[in-house]
Amino acid sequence: MSQSTSSTDSSTPAGLSMDEQLALLRRLRSDILIAYRPHIQEGAGPIRVMARIVAELEQACREHAISDELIRAEVVNRTIGDIDLRQVVECEGEPGGPWDYRMLADELGIALPGEQLHGYTATGETYLWLREQMQTCERHLLSQGFDPRVYDIYGIGNPVLRGWLAGEMGRWGIEVTHRNIHLSLGAMDGIDNVLRGLAHLARTQKKESIAILFPEPGFGVPEWQALSYGYHIYRYSTAAENHFKLTGEQLDQILTERQDISVLYLTITNNPTAFAYTPEELNDLHAVLRRYREHGRKVFILADLAYIGTGKPEEDQARMATFTQPDVLKHTIFVSSFSKTYTLTGERLGWVTCGDPDIAAGISVSWSNGLAALPGEWQLRFMAYYRLFQERPLLAEKLRRFYRLRRTQLLAQLRSIDEQFHLFDQIYIDDDATVYNWSKLKEGVDAFALFEKTGIAGVPGTGFGYDDAYIRFSIGVIPIIPKEIL
């Protein structure tokens, strides 16, 4: 949070001194929080409400001719998890070296040729390379008898790309073929299609109802999706002493009490907490589900892998190895994307992997009756990006290092803020993965109070099915830089 500057500082065109601008900004911030507080749980939910508060406050500040410098210091958006590569300013080592993160937008094909990126001029090489690859991929598809420009009666994407993604799963030890893979417009679309498809299968099997278990805190969108398809929703609040993870003992008790649960939604590396399941914890869950299957009850794991790839490779490998057992794999549906692992949120490049190809066939109705056919140009771009990551594997390591740098800086910032304002009960250290921090606030403090006092906007715990004693911050939209903690 910035300090007041001298009233002799230069004034804006509206005639306000910097002190007057600062006072006005803080009054606008207080007013908008008062207006929104009663509505935090309405509409799209707390994440988007908090993001909307930030956007509307920034707009109001500009309408009042408040300087951009003050806005940046006093309105800090830590709500949405997307990384804006065009805003990256960090560089470790020599400029232009391997850990110059300003180059990521260029290296990932986001930056246009000649675009200026905080002192770095993009070559646009990857931007153009991707387009050349799209043409190459289209010619390859045509040679295989698949035309992405015409109607695809199955609606699940071309078999060549699906085969490549089967190979991608193979690096985790998940042995499948293209028949197990369906493309999706990002992870959320994949989850939506899976939930709709499983509900369809339940109806064809004459089941009276279908229920799903959501450990919380957790990503909330799948709950809304499941409700829209008629699922009975069960929520379970996990405990801080277990790092907010579901234990095998807890799962056993829940399944005993709730006989209709047939799907467990599980984020292997968690949003919002940034804690990840260990292999031992996953094996405990698998053992419980195995016992129930032996007695004729099937419970599928809907495994959200959005952040697998953002952590230490050897630890991610060990987590994924627990799913390779044939009986576990057969009852698991994985949802993956390049959104967080490669910062390509806007591209919407995702896929679904069913351990059982029969389940993959059964839920494919969601694709054919939803999208009818996946966009051809999008599939070609997906293929081009897949080739990029195969050709330049160091990009993944660079992004992991970049995430680690920002998480470390955010932890330091939160500790500095706490020394000044005493707002936190506990600032959690993550499992070296994801793009978030999850921390506990002191009694009487919530996300609104923290935003009003510090200018930093996070998402309250209620946005993830928990309570407002907790808050999630993102390292994504903007950098963590010293001026935010002045």
Automatic annotation (TrEMBL):
It comes from the Bacteria. The keyword Transferase applies. Residues 200-475 form the Aminotransferase class I/classII large domain. Keywords: Aminotransferase, Pyridoxal phosphate, Transferase. GO terms for molecular function: pyridoxal phosphate binding; transaminase activity. Transmembrane segments: none annotated. The keyword Lyase does not apply. The lineage of its organism: Bacteria, Bacillati, Chloroflexota, Ktedonobacteria, Ktedonobacterales. It comes from Dictyobacter vulcani. SUPFAM superfamilies: PLP-dependent transferases. Belongs to the class-I pyridoxal-phosphate-dependent aminotransferase family. This is Aminotransferase class I/classII large domain-containing protein. GO terms for biological process: amino acid metabolic process. It holds the Pfam family Aminotran_1_2. Its cofactor is pyridoxal 5'-phosphate.
